[in-house]
Sequence to fold (373 residues):
Amino acid sequence: MRKMICLLAMCSIFAAMLAPTLRGQQPWVIGPWVRASQTPVIRPRPKSTFTDPISGQPVHWEALHTFNPAAIVRDGKIVLLYRAEDDSGEMRIGGHTSRLGMATSADGIHFQRNSQPVFYPSRDSQTSRESPGGVEDPRLVESPDGRYILTYTQWSRSRNSFTIGVATSPDLHTWTKFGPIFGADGKYARWKYKSAGIVTRVEGDHLVAAKLHGRYWMYWGEVEIHLATSKDLIHWHPVEDKEGNPKVLLHRRPGRSDSGFPETGPPAVLTSRGIVLLYNAKNALDDSRDPTIGPGAYSVQEALFSARNPGKLLARTDTPVFQPQLDWEKSGQYASGTTFAEGLVLFRGQWWLYYGAADSFVGVAKATTAASY
Fold:
């Protein structure tokens, strides 16, 4: 009888180990993902006020929407930099001013929030690129020398322009802005581009920018995902094809959840199998869409690139690893639904994924298993 019980127990353990593969998950994928909270971990706070340095007037800086967060582990806690929209401007997507708020958590779910934003448009060298409009959709990594490297979208309504900006900080409070990652002059000066995830390696509970072949690497882009390199994490250069255009690594796939387009998600992670990139997949609105997910909805997919050649795609998930399901993920500012992944951390031995829900809230999921790193 004991032998039978032991045999059954061993079978159960073996089945549990194989479960992700049996569900169709490839062994390199980070996941499967389960919600760590059934409710938003960050919501709008209409009463929060801040004196805008450009207008000199008080504004309700996180009154309308709080979403699309960056994440990092600092001093044993998870820190989020989340996009917060005020109640100024037109009631439409892109019609408000965005700033970045900070929230800190000891358990990954319950957050203490700063009363003031920590990153915002100001009277500085980037005013014309960030006002009126704002700073949006951050991604955050550590540098090998201990600095924090922030990539974010610089949005200007008056210029009708958006670029990826970069800033650094020693403490997440005091920031130095460096402007567009591809420079303010030259070939890419007039380009519109957004969404950048720097390749990282795991060092304890920290994700630190990884040098491969003597350079740092970054996946970037919306509609198509490209690659760029840097020697200093500030100045970046797109990897180009033979025609001199940014090399395309990922593009839309009819019939899949990324049939609309792919968009770079959180910082990528170097693992024993290669570089894992979580990316946001927009479903198409027409007949080319994935019929199992809502038209226009954003879900999460994953891609694996070679560590020897970060521009070489090795594998790609065929179905979402995470997608909108709960009411608050499908009924906000973006009612088609989003689980827009931007913050990824390794915390207490598990992967935590922070995402924007319906362009209105911040949600969190955990990976019950993880790709080897």
